[in-house]
Amino acid sequence: MTPKIIFFDIDETLYRKATNYLPDSTARAIRALKARGIIPAIATGRTLAALPDKVRALADAEGIELFVTINGQYNAFRGEPIACNPMGLTEIERFTALFRRHGWDYTFVGAEKMASSSSNPRVNEALAGIGPYIVDPDYYRHQPVYQFLLYIDPTEETTLNDSGELGREYHAMRWHPFSVDLLHAEGSKARGIRSVCAALGVPLAETMAFGDGLNDVEMFKTVGFGVAMGDAVPELRAVAQMQTGTVEEDGIYNALKKLEIIP
């Protein structure tokens, strides 16, 4: 199967966050895909404002034009939004009131900025390598917000789940020892991929994805073929059609060659 679109997660897939490493082979792979008429796309939990410099440079240099961002809540093609799912003002105020009652710090995630309730070591450690942020507790009043980053440990997450505020409409997904993504239950990379594929007229069966984390599981269940990186979590490996090497082992490039998608 030659896919029409291949979606790439960023952290620990395209790019190693801890060492700021992006292999040269990835640019060669993207170039080869485009030469065959295959669309390379980014699918990430990050906002566009928080793309690592090396990933942004890769996208600019190789012409990556399709982005599924903020776990599918904000998606764009050739610089124009395709599908956007901002949170409602009432919901935002309900959650911020809950966070303030418990003394929990949080970050509003917008399409172009991240704005935190405060600046402190816990927030800074979680966002290290993610991107810059501003401090603006009222950010939601003048810009759309697509999800929260909430700085809580697993014990506090139990308190969040037991509060009844999430209901069936919202869920929390851990991505850091003391931070979770809080977003609409329908929000996922899978939702964004379905939206952009519908807009571009591409059957989901003719898509592929590379990933490593828990927020890639629904993506793998949605695309036609999923490739797990060498250090992917067990939950993702369980639903992948193939496992490749790590970022440092040129996992993307080697998998695409092995599958004969690029020469």
Automatic annotation (TrEMBL):
<dbReference type="InterPro" id="IPR000150">
    <property type="entry name" value="Cof"/>
</dbReference>
<dbReference type="GO" id="GO:0000287">
    <property type="term" value="F:magnesium ion binding"/>
</dbReference>
<dbReference type="InterPro" id="IPR023214">
    <property type="entry name" value="HAD_sf"/>
</dbReference>
<protein>
    <submittedName>
        <fullName>Bifunctional phosphatase/peptidyl-prolyl cis-trans isomerase</fullName>
    </submittedName>
</protein>
<dbReference type="GO" id="GO:0005829">
    <property type="term" value="C:cytosol"/>
</dbReference>
<dbReference type="GO" id="GO:0016853">
    <property type="term" value="F:isomerase activity"/>
</dbReference>
<dbReference type="InterPro" id="IPR036412">
    <property type="entry name" value="HAD-like_sf"/>
</dbReference>
<dbReference type="Pfam" id="PF08282">
    <property type="entry name" value="Hydrolase_3"/>
</dbReference>
<keyword id="KW-0413">Isomerase</keyword>
<dbReference type="GO" id="GO:0016791">
    <property type="term" value="F:phosphatase activity"/>
</dbReference>
